[in-house]
Specification:
Layout: E1 4-9, E2 17-21, E3 37-43, H1 52-63, E4 69-75, H2 78-87, E5 95-105, H3 108-120, E6 125-130, H4 138-143, E7 146-149, H5 157-176
Parallel strand pairs: 3-4, 3-6, 5-6, 5-7
Antiparallel strand pairs: 1-2
Helix pairs in contact: 1-5, 3-5
Length: about 180
């Protein structure tokens, strides 16, 4: 199904209005469509506010505002995160993406297409989770909807959070036709 974005409005309450016209769409121009919630989760202590990586990560999460709601979450253990995911109440269950070196690698364009497909399927909540130092358990892997790789190299949690936040922002700008992504 093709959808053409014809404009956006942002009322004072900060919730986005999406104006869509499509030959197959039942949504009328100006009708409110609640934005997707993107949670950037990790196993480990909460980042320090003075941490430069944390500040940059928050900048990218804030930049996602016109496209989705976003928030960071920290969990002491994998079990605590899985319990939290199980308690999330919405029309749809959260779509869980575990960052894993053995996962699927995508280009920025492919990731944008994937994220756009989740948005178009009306996924309400996507959780991108960075795992414990010793990797995800088999139980966590089996609960995931997708294992996603940032590449074969291992990186610090703070850097991985920054990369994911930037790529989520980049994906939404690609979908919106924003000039942030030049395609090379």
């Amino acid at each position: 199904m093709e959808v053409w974005i014809t404009g956006r409005g942002y009322p004072k309450n900060g919730k986005a209005l999406f104006f869509e016209q499509s030959p197959l769409s039942t949504q009328k121009s100006g009708e409110y469509s609640p934005p997707m919630l993107v949670t950037l989760a990790h196993i480990g202590p909460p980042p320090k506010t003075a941490d430069g990586f944390n500040a940059l990560t928050q900048i990218y999460l804030d930049r996602c505002g016109p496209y989705c709601q976003s928030k960071p979450e920290s969990f002491r253990s994998e079990d605590a995160m899985m319990d939290w995911i199980g308690r999330q109440k919405a029309r749809t269950t959260p779509f869980v993406v575990l960052l894993d070196s053995q996962g699927r690698a995508m280009t920025s364009d492919a990731f944008a297409a994937w994220l756009g497909a989740r948005r178009d399927e009306a996924t309400q909540h996507i959780v991108f989770a960075i795992g414990p130092a010793d990797g995800w358990s088999q139980a966590a892997r089996s609960r995931a909807n997708l294992l996603l790789s940032l590449g074969p190299m291992t990186m610090a949690h703070a850097l991985a959070r920054l990369v994911v936040a930037e790529q989520v922002y980049r994906a939404f700008t690609i979908l919106a036709g924003h000039p942030y992504h030049t395609g090379h």
